From TrEMBL:
This is Leucine-binding protein domain-containing protein. InterPro entries: BCAA_transport (IPR051010), Leu-bd (IPR028081), Peripla_BP_I (IPR028082). The keyword Signal applies. Residues 1-34 form the signal peptide. It comes from the Bacteria. It comes from Cryobacterium suzukii. PROSITE patterns: PROKAR_LIPOPROTEIN. Pfam families: Peripla_BP_6. Residues 42-398 form the Leucine-binding protein domain. Belongs to the leucine-binding protein family. Keywords: Signal.
Amino acid sequence: MGVKKIAKRKLVRLSALGVATVVALPLLMGCSTAASSSSSDSIKIGAFFPVSGSLALLGEESWRGVQIATDLRNAAGGVADKSIEMVFADVPDVNAATSEARRLASDSDINLAVGSYSSGLSLAASEVFARGGSTFVELGAVSEAITDRDYENVFRFNPAAGSFTKLQMRFITEHLAEELGKPVSELNVILAHEDSAYGQSVAENAVIDAAEAGLVNFSLEPYNAKSTDLSSTVLRLKAKAPDIVIAVSYAADAILLGRQIRDNGLQLGAFIGTGGGHSLKGFHDALGEAADGVYDVDFTQIHVNEEFTPGITEFTAAYEERYDSLPASGHALANFTGANLLFDILEETNGSDDPEEFRQAAQNFKLEIGTTSSGWGFSLNENNQNELADVYVMQWNGDQLETVWPEQAAIRAPLPATPFGV
């Protein structure tokens, strides 16, 4: 998107981080739990992410994206000449999300909060803020319920669960059916999903989208993500002889499911992950070449058409400079993009976090697709869901998760492959 002047202030709008020199700016320690300075010269924003417990891996990745966005924006002058102060809360479970939300919401200087990677955590924390009349902006969780509760001050800037299943069904009907040499109506497709709010939300949307796509042989296979043995699930899949398996998994169960598909000789025409564990480098590290060819539908990854995602190279450089590694998943980029969208909207309110002013500014704020570092645009629907945030199809190739579909985001075409080497 490049440099865009904001009325009377000439600040850089950084949703796309279109200025490469911004990475050379020092990374400031703008994210802390310290007491705030006067609200006249800073904006305090609550930040809820799980950086301990079972959700810590992707929770930490999500928080890193917010930290980078905050530090770069503060280095570029802040928002409306105010510094941004993220007041962090570690929320490893729903109880913690509720109690920490009550704690931060009781601070008269905090009228706005972001989070939270996990749908369960988001539902809990946003409920507290919404009932208290404050604003909550979700940057990563996907459950449809987050924005379906008629709370006028709960927003989501990232894609919802329905985006994942809609794209999966399009990919199956527009690409995989021809590749597998079968009419759509004859394809046998099974969704194997972990059974928490995350998996259930995806499954509910998948049933609807599969029917609309003409996939008459579509079924569900739920399982417990905490299970240490998924062989019974794999054997049930094998008995149904699917052409395609779609999976909704966290980190450990994604690896376990892949291993047991391999070990039980389940032959598939294609395997499509739904973000989560299938986006992690650790998935490929654990399975090696057996993971090559596995598809994954998820938030934007760093191996993507850079013309469609202006600013992504600058984000990646900033991440490497701070953490001495590449991002572990697309969650850091998604939260980085979402945080910058939030800051841009706060520019429109002249730095005010008043819930009514923020809501009006957010509803009026518009960006075209292909103008942010995730490739997303921005336009809120009646439920405060960003309708122009989307997901893409990636495919594992060596240790890189490469974007392959649709064409405007892809760096190469999808390659036929036997999932898990079976």
